[in-house]
Amino acid sequence: MARTTTKGTCHFCRQVFGKATMTRHLETCPQRAVSFATAHGKTSAVPARLLHLRAEGLDAPSYWMHLEIPMEASLQTLDSFLRKSWLECCGHLSRFEIHGTSYSSYIDSEFGDKSMRVQVGKILEVGDQFVHEYDFGTTTELRLKVLAEREGVLQKKAVELLAHNIPPVIPCDICGKPATQICSQCIYEGGGWLCELCAPQHECGEEMLLPVVNSPRVGMCGYDGPGL
User: Fold this and answer.
1) Where are the beta strands (DSSP E) in 71-104?
2) Rounded to an integer, what distance in angstroms lies between the CA atom of residue 97 and that of residue 129?
3) Contact 9, 163 (CB under 8 A)
4) Is 170 helix (H, G, I), strand (E, B) or coil?
5) For 14-62, how does the pLDDT look when each residue is reduced to its tens digit (9 = 90+)?
6) Which of 38, 91, 125, 159 makes a 20 to 30 Å CA pair with 50?
7) What percent of the chain has pLDDT over 70?
């Protein structure tokens, strides 16, 4: 899909780092440490074990994010976050593949799928890699990895976004200016990126165009954002 970009923004200090170094930065970010200390200092703070995950597009790794989720939260909670952040367009089914077991948004006993209501801390540990699939027709696949575990406190949001990629600047196939539209048919042939001026001239017709958004689902099905 999109050309590779390697930089992203830390949500604590707002500084930009390469994809390969963001994990190390988050371990030592001073502003994250301040946020951590402030949260622990509140009388209402509820201790929790937290998992630090990185998610990225399986076929579009230029889209990536770091997030943190309580170990007692469910896979369903993680699925809802991924849908809201990157995926949801038409209420499609989804599933996780973890250690050879499928955890589905719709349990089908014929295929042995299990429920997403299981707690993440019961099936995941540091170093684990797993896959998330959304939409079994026009599928968007994500690769996730558990990077770390720590003691923290429960936040208002069930899943906290720690960092994410800067939107890739993808050139228009015709004139080279930044693309703002993508053809939902041509994308499967590696093209279809168009700027505002060139989009009306596209041979597939304007009804096939979708906005370019910061998500590995860009250009697929009816997805028009928001993306991160």
Assistant:
1) 94-98, 101-104
2) 9
3) yes
4) coil
5) 999 999 999 999 999 999 988 766 666 665 668 899 999 999 999 999 9
6) 91
7) 91
Helix, strand or coil for residue 104? strand
Q: Are 117 and 106 in contact (CB under 8 A)?
A: no
Let me know: does 117 contact 74? Beta carbons within 8 Å. Answer: yes
Confidence of residue 112 (pLDDT cuts 50, 70, 90): low
Residue type, 168: P
What six digits make up the tokens of 83? 């849908």
Confidence (pTM): 0.91
Contact 142, 42 (CB under 8 A): no
Lookup: tokens for 129: 């890699």
Token pair in block for residue 193? 């990126």
Dihedral class, residue 221 (left if φ above 0, else alpha if ψ from -120 to 50, else beta): left
> In the numeric block, which tokens belong to residue 139?
């599928």
Beta strands 193-194; 47-57: pairing state? unpaired
pLDDT at 4: 53
- Asked whether 99 and 114 are in contact (CB, 8 A), the reply is no
Q: Which residue has the tokens 């800067």?
A: 166
Strands 64-70 and 47-57: antiparallel
pLDDT tens digits along 116-171 = 999 999 999 999 999 999 999 999 999 999 999 999 888 778 999 999 999 999 99
